[in-house]
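COURSE: Structural Biology Practicum
ASSIGNMENT: Worksheet 4, Part C
STUDENT ID: 0417
INSTRUCTIONS: Below are two proteins. For each, the amino acid sequence is given first, followed by its structure token string. Answer the questions at the end about the second protein only.

PROTEIN I
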Amino acid sequence: MNLSALTALSPLDGRYASRMGTLRPLLSEFGLMHRRVQVEIEWFIALSDAGLAEFKPLSDASRSFLRGLVSQFSETDAQAIKDIEKTTNHDVKAVEYWIKQQFAGKDELQAAGEFVHFACTSEDINNTSHGLMLKAAREQVILPALDKVIAKLTEMAQAMAAAPMLSRTHGQTASPTTVGKEIANVVARLRRARTVIADVKLLAKMNGAVGNYNAHLSAYPDIDWEAFSQLVIEQQLGLSFNPYTIQIEPHDYMAELFDAVTRANTILIDWSRDVWGYVSLGYFKQRTKAGEIGSSTMPHKVNPIDFENAEGNFGLANAVLTHLSQKLPISRWQRDLTDSTVLRNMGVALGYALLGYDSLSKGLDKLELNPAALEADLDAAWEVLAEPIQTVMRRYALPNPYERLKELTRGKAITAEAIREFVQGLELPEAEKQRLLAMSPATYTGKAEALARRI
């Protein structure tokens, strides 16, 4: 079979391929090759400025040409590297050879050709490339997708700030809230989670085969290679320097990043399930599109599929992200290769996360509040006023307030009339009694509206 959207093993490259367009150039094999070329080029240019007797500073024309190899890197270039790899059977060496091929006819670059990949182990190129890949994916795709969800939820929280809603704790009727306040809770959690994702420092190293600059110092013992490496990593690549490593950068920062994304996804799984429940209760209606079918046999149905898809894809994302965060920081002695094959699945993990954000955004855009259902639910739950009544009774030292309200309400269907009759019989100041009599489940929402508007 030829590879196509229909024959792809992963739905990310099949059914959902069109929704992965922003992530694919960054975390694919192409994306890895692109960043490898970038790192090799920046290391090469920096070496020319390091004061090495055998490698003078490159001309502006050569620098422009070299960086053009990065900015104009194409699928054709990536395929050429892949073709070289068929001979070398080594992916990083194939990149080195491809770069040297580009020097053909350029005397200045050809003369310095052996400084491509100078003193580097493959992991010097790979770990920096992975850092650049994650930096781009975080800044260009993951955070913008998460921000879209947060912005929509913030808008909903404020728009629905005053819409009263019956709470349910342990599945049972509880003190009322507002729809907006419950959404604001999610916004507050997501904002904290987003900050953690954004604040993870992406670390990198370029210190040779076992992290000690052995080869570097054997060739140029008088160069401060640690300072040089830090300059390349921080100033030219925009990553954070890790001075202590084995052959590999130990990937602790990746674990931090993936755990942070997992935490945000978990919050959204929680929210997806809640929205699913609110749709089931009728609190929300879903706008439909002409021609869409909710059920193959029940024409009336409008299934909450976007929230179900979001939940499922966040679960897949978290499963892979959790494996990445637990496996990547572990390497036998100075290195083993178990991280290499696992790292190729960063795009899978973040791809499912992106799919979750996209599905959730689509679902949120379809929601419409159903005030009638909210009001009916509240009006059927007058027992929730037992809490404010017994609290006021406590204030005025009436005997056994909790026990008296428990006897009145627990396990019983309580009407407005029964509640009001109970209040009328209490020995309370008249003003307090009237305040309680004026209260209803729909008005007993505390500070919910203010909290929702403040978000």
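PROTEIN II
(use this one for the questions)
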Amino acid sequence: MPSPAPSDAPDKPRVVLGVGGGIAAYKACELLRRFTESGHDVTVVPTASALEFVGAPTWAALSGKPVADDVWTGVHQVPHVRIGQAADLVVVAPATADLLAKAAHGLADDLLTNTLLTARCPVVMAPAMHTEMWEHPATVANVATLRARGVLVLDPAEGRLTGKDTGKGRLPEPSEIFEVGVDVLGRASAADPAGADLSGRHVVVSAGGTREYLDPVRFLGNRSSGRQGYALARAALARGARVTLVAANVDLPAPAGAHVVPVETTAELHAAVVAAAAEADAVVMAAAPADFRPAAYSDDKIKKRADGSAAPVELEQNADILADVAHDRRRPGQVVVGFAAETGDAHSTVLELGRAKLARKGCDLLVVNDVRGGAVFGSTDNEAVVLGADGSALEVPRAAKGVLAHAIWDRVATLW
């Protein structure tokens, strides 16, 4: 039977991996591998239906523990109570419509649903089902109920479903579910077991760098990878927010649960951010939009000149997205956060330029990066100073970009 409190690994975080009876159950094997290889003690609790897709020997071999789905195996150790009581985190992936309904209504007819009732730790559920099932009023109501109780229910991804169907309902990538789980586990505290202080909030995050096309093969762009914006999205999701992520030319896995809006140009980024900001509690502009675009686009590839001279490129200015959003807030109490990649110059320091930009843009917070020598771009680490319109300055030392992301959300939360 599953061990409720592993004695061989008392210092390892104890994770319960619940597996619902959907075709995406096979993807939970990858999620299990990520948790075990990163030093977590994992107990797998599948439903009977899940075992029709992936057998108990597979889960036992990958977790190093025996696996059961009923409350009778090893009943003398009271597994239907002990597993939930001992857990530091419960992750359910996939969470089917049936499992969401049972959890919302407090039903307990197997080991997993009993575990969900007895767990007093953070619970993360990653739904997977057909679009019609996800959008059905019953499922919508069940998800709302669970979220109101502090359960972190991720939105499913969009893509290929069972058979020929496509749409919203696909299980998010296991790597992204893992990132959310680790983030939630790291932030959980006795005061706020779920760490979901952004629950009920809708936030918009932009990420990446825009492209302004000269001709069918060439464009003006920048070095932004989108990693900081994606870290902001993941951190907000782990804290319970609904996230709209406007991604400009980013080649990264979509954060589990985020609604991703892909864009290419600054004009597209402007339109997407302004539209999403109308119903957002916070807008964080981590993307790097181009300040200028070519005044004319060539339908044909621009050829080299015979005399070797360079063809002139006339530029025109793009709209200022951050300023437009900051000065046209349609939602009361909305917090607007900008980013500034600065190098300083002969007349001003990086922070002096940042404070001037903060005042000029009209945002509440400005995250200032010193990017001399190409620092920050493409890196997994970051350091910055978060300037406030109130004159405050928060220095965030170099660390993983997720650390800076949480520091930013901490400041946003204080402004709410």
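ANSWER KEY EXCERPT:
Q1: The longest strand covers residues 335-342.
Q2: The chain is about 35% helix and 25% strand.
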